[in-house]
């Protein structure tokens, strides 16, 4: 259900056209069929895995023309997180919300945010330099129970870019 006056784009293409300038798009990175490596950065132009020598692309079928793109055996979908976090810090109100966990004094003895929990405090004691910067973000990223990635991101570097 959308708010009054808001509309959904008519098609997937139309929604991609709106979202693309925001930098929210997925990046597709070819990967070895056997999960040995990614065809990325220095290895971006390789045609086979440098570890197991599995070809990067499926064999071309009859009738394929040169203009048709080669199809990789496997691709990784990468959703860059840093631009999204940078965007959160561009507005003062959202930036305040992002730093709240560190700057709000909270209430002694109340457990109302993960920062009040022992796990958060243990992390702060274990990583005092990371914990000292209020702009650093602790992420708990979960995708439908299939992949669980816990990532701590140092945003001091991102902050300099803003
Ligand atoms: Zn391989």
Tell me what the structure shows.
With 162 residues, this protein is an alpha+beta fold. The chain folds into two domains: 22-78, no CATH class; 82-104 and 113-161, no CATH class. It contains six helices and four strands. It has helices at 12-19, 82-88, 92-103, 118-126, 128-132, 156-161; strands at 27-31, 74-78, 137-143, 147-153. It has a two-stranded antiparallel sheet with strand order 1-2. A two-stranded antiparallel sheet has the order 3-4. A hairpin with a 3-residue loop joins strand 3 and strand 4. The relative contact order is 0.10. Residues 144-153 and 155-162 have low confidence and may be disordered. Zinc ion binds next to loops. Zinc ion binds at residues 32, 34, 36-37, 49, 51-52, 54.
Task: Set down the secondary structure blueprint.
Elements: H1 12-19, E1 27-31, E2 74-78, H2 82-88, H3 92-103, H4 118-126, H5 128-132, E3 137-143, E4 147-153, H6 156-161
Antiparallel strand pairs: 1-2, 3-4
Offer a quick outline of the entry:
InterPro entries: Transposase_21. The protein has 162 residues and is of the alpha+beta class.
Tally the helices: what do you get?
6
For the largest beta-sheet, the strand count, sense and barrel status come to:
2 strands, antiparallel
Cα gyration radius (Å): 22 Å
Ligand names = zinc ion
Question: What is the β-strand count?
Answer: 4
Could you say how many structural domains there are in total?
2
Q: In percent, how helical is the residue content?
A: 25-40%
User: Low-confidence stretches at least 5 residues in length (pLDDT < 50)?
Assistant: 144-153, 155-162
Overall outline: flat
- The SSE string, one letter per element, is HEEHHHHEEH
Q: How confident overall, as mean pLDDT?
A: 81
Describe the strand arrangement of the main beta sheet, using strand numbers.
Answer: 1-2
Strand content: 5-15%
Q: Kindly, what is the distance between the CA atoms of the first and last residues, rounded to a whole number of angstroms? A: 34 Å
Structural class: alpha+beta
InterPro entries: Transposase_21
Pfam families: Transposase_21
């Amino acid at each position: 259900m959308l708010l009054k006056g808001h509309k959904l784009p008519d098609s997937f293409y139309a929604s991609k056209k709106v979202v693309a300038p925001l930098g929210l798009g997925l990046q597709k990175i070819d990967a070895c069929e056997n999960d040995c490596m990614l065809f990325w950065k220095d290895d971006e132009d390789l045609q086979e895995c440098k570890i197991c020598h599995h070809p990067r692309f499926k064999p071309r079928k009859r009738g394929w023309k040169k203009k048709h793109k080669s199809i990789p055996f496997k691709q990784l979908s990468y959703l860059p997180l840093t631009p999204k976090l940078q965007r959160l810090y561009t507005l003062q109100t959202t930036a305040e919300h992002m730093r709240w966990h560190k700057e709000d004094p909270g209430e002694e003895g109340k457990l109302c945010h993960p920062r009040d929990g022992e796990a958060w405090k243990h992390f702060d004691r274990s990583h005092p330099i990371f914990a000292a910067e209020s702009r650093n973000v602790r992420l708990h990223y979960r995708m439908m129970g299939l992949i669980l990635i816990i990532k701590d991101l140092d945003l001091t570097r991102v902050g300099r870019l803003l």
